[in-house]
Write a structure and sequence with these properties.
With about 70 residues, the chain is mainly alpha-helical. It has two helices and two strands, in the order βαβα. It has helices spanning about 15-20, 45-70; strands at about 1-5, 30. It has a two-stranded parallel sheet. The chain is elongated and about 50 Å long. It starts with a strand and ends with a helix.
Length: about 70
């Protein structure tokens, strides 16, 4: 997960987008509207991370269930 603040001048969203292109298929970019480099948590960063991790957990659970069903 690559988080970027819409108004971040230290590491602008274009940096995250470039990194995502280099790691295509294994990364996800989320640009947080109104956020800068220091206030992303006020603009949904914690929710974005939690949602991303829950998605990974659901994928892992599905993979585990499929593996167990194959046994």
């Amino acid at each position: 997960l690559l988080l970027a603040g819409e108004n971040d001048t230290v590491t602008p969203p274009s940096f995250a987008e470039t990194l995502a292109k280099l790691s295509e298929g294994v990364s996800q970019v989320q640009v947080l509207p109104g956020a800068n480099h220091l206030n992303m948590y006020r603009h949904g960063a914690l929710d974005a991370v939690a949602s991303f991790l829950l998605g990974l957990a659901a994928t892992a659970d599905t993979g585990t269930a499929e593996a167990e069903a194959a046994i």
